[in-house]
Amino acid sequence: MLDILVLYYSQHGATRELARLIARGVDGVPGCQARLRTVPKVSSVCEAVEPAIPDGGAPYVERQDLIDCAGLALGSPTRFGNMASAMKYFLDGTSGEWMQGALAGKPACVFTSTSSLHGGQEATLLTMMVPLLHHGMVIAGLPYSEAALLATQTGGTPYGVSHLAGPQSDRPISEHEKALALAQGNRLAELAVKLAAK
């Protein structure tokens, strides 16, 4: 079985829900299984530490998860047109994996959630791709052959699936967003199978 790492940070739950849908898409591809992982919050208090196991959701990611994965889906809510600091902090600590080429040649995709329609979804997705490109990963977008991409009135971009959470971060994931998240997971897993066969 090929492990596809679905790595996310989520504060209000929307990005976590997208991650779970992407994981379902991955699991729908024969020979692939999703490995859901998250990253801890960044604290401004140096002595503060997160518990070893999160209170809810996926376990915290370990470096070995990156090494073992055959593909990576990376998700974060938008913070001023960029990924959240918790995800950036984690990625900034992956220079060892970069030096080893642990992710080089593996497929990757990105996903995000924002409070407002023009709150930086595309900017976040594009900036999340940059460290993955530095790792030598092969970026997979969402093609317009996905009908939901042309029909959506909420989230969804060719750079990766997105969700419009609303000002209170309480809007449910729309049917189009669900369809795109499942398609993105499926596409990522299919690419991982093809690349692993070479």
From TrEMBL:
Cofactor: FMN
The keyword Transferase is annotated on this UniProt entry: no
MF (Gene Ontology): NAD(P)H dehydrogenase (quinone) activity
Keyword Oxidoreductase: yes
SUPFAM superfamilies: Flavoproteins
Keywords in alphabetical order: Flavoprotein, FMN, Oxidoreductase
PROSITE patterns: FLAVODOXIN (PS00201), FLAVODOXIN_LIKE (PS50902)
Flavodoxin-like domain ranges (all copies): 4-188
Matches recorded under InterPro entries: Flavodoxin/NO_synth, Flavodoxin_CS, Flavoprotein-like_sf, Flavoprotein_WrbA-like, FMN_Rdtase-like_dom
Similarity-based family: Belongs to the WrbA family.
Name of protein: Flavoprotein WrbA
Gene name in the database record: wrbA
